[in-house]
Write a structure and sequence with these properties.
about 30% helix, binds ligand K1U, alpha+beta, five-stranded antiparallel beta sheet, binds zinc ion
Length: about 180
């Protein structure tokens, strides 16, 4: 962990059923860029501390279309900032992989999504960029963009699996609150 990470304050991550997680985030405008640049180090520090490989602004209560991702924080850190990301192409081929979510702590389930996606976004300098991903990167890009639209990975599960998972989460959270 770097000195910058130690000194950057962390933000609480919103947990299901916090209603902010179900709202649509709005596009970042040039007028938001100062706030966005200030949020980026805090979002990375919060994500690394969780630990996680992605974090979307609604998860820290800000309804802005802003995402941070780092798939390999323990190896070579490769931080990626995506502002106003949009999926511009998705493969017909799908892939199924286990997903977790920092807003649905300690609950995991298999999710099926397009295997490859192309995403257009602005970087932290406001420059237009595109990224193509497959495997974990494709799943993470789609998972984070879903957060900007109020969608959670549990929405892809059958009602039976979703209800089981959410009941288990509620029980775990109740247990944690009782132990505080
Ligand atoms: O958005 C989030 O809630 C973060 C989420 C991202 C994600 C994980 C798996 C598939 C798609 C998207 C997480 O980071 S959950 C934690 C996690 O996957 C992880 C944590 C530490 C090391 C490696 C992975
Ligand atoms: Zn998530």
């Amino acid at each position: 962990m770097s000195v910058a990470e130690i000194e950057t304050p962390l933000l609480p991550i919103r947990i299901v059923p916090d209603p902010v997680l179900r709202k649509m985030a709005r596009a970042v405008t040039p007028a938001d860029m100062d706030e966005v640049r200030a949020l980026i180090p805090t979002m990375f520090a919060t994500m690394y501390a969780a630990p996680g490989i992605g974090l979307a602004a609604p998860q820290i209560g800000r309804l802005l279309r802003l995402v941070v991702i780092d798939l390999a924080p323990e190896k070579v850190p490769t931080p990626l900032v995506l502002i106003n990301p949009e999926v511009v192409a998705a493969s017909e081929e799908t892939a199924t992989a286990e997903e977790g979510c920092l807003s649905v702590p300690e609950q995991y389930a298999e999710v099926t999504r397009p295997a490859r996606v192309k995403v257009r976004y602005l970087d932290e300098h406001g420059d237009k960029k595109e990224i193509e991903g497959e495997g974990l990167l494709a799943a993470c890009l789609q998972h984070e963009i879903d957060h900007l639209n109020g969608v959670l990975f549990v929405d892809y599960l059958s009602a039976l699996k979703r209800n089981m998972l959410l009941r288990r989460l509620a029980k775990d959270q109740k247990g944690k609150a009782a132990r505080k």
